[in-house]
Design goal:
Blueprint: H1 9-27, H2 34-45, E1 49-50, H3 51-58, H4 62-74, E2 78-83, E3 86-94, H5 96-116, H6 122-137
Antiparallel strand pairs: 1-3, 2-3
């Protein structure tokens, strides 16, 4: 009995991720990785959140997120400051340069999504996104 890879969720998710990565490299300005984009988009939506909350919001582990945030701080895209009420927490927010980078990237990120889903009609897109969100929350 032959195993059908086209019925294997993990295989299909990996292939979809490969396509996303290729489209990202083609369409999004090289200044931001997809994780860096997630960080600055989340900070734009919720300025001044702490690093732990940010990690939970974008589903990223705290140690790696610390490195990503450190690089964004070095590049002047975000600022990190100690919480005045709890010195163990870092509060994060976008700088003007970070807001500009986000504004430059959003149209390209939208284009990645469009190209990724271009073979689907509106109902199929909504269904796929709803099901992927469900799988991601599980």
């Amino acid at each position: 009995m032959a195993f059908d890879l086209l019925q294997a969720p993990g295989h299909l998710i990996r292939r979809a991720q490969q396509r996303h990565t290729a489209l990202w490299a083609e369409l999004v300005p090289a200044e931001l990785t997809s994780v860096q984009f997630a960080v600055i988009a989340a900070l734009d939506a919720t300025p001044g959140i702490d690093q732990r909350t940010l990690g939970a919001r974008i589903s990223f582990d705290s140690s790696t997120l610390g490195e990503v945030c450190g690089r964004l701080v070095e590049r002047g895209l975000i600022e990190r400051r100690r919480d005045p009420h709890d010195a163990r927490r870092n509060l994060l927010s976008l700088t003007d340069a970070g807001r500009e980078a986000l504004a430059r990237a959003v149209p390209a990120v939208d284009a990645v999504g469009e190209r990724l889903l271009e073979g689907l009609d509106d109902e199929e897109r909504r269904t796929l996104l709803r099901l992927l969100a469900h799988v991601a929350r599980a």
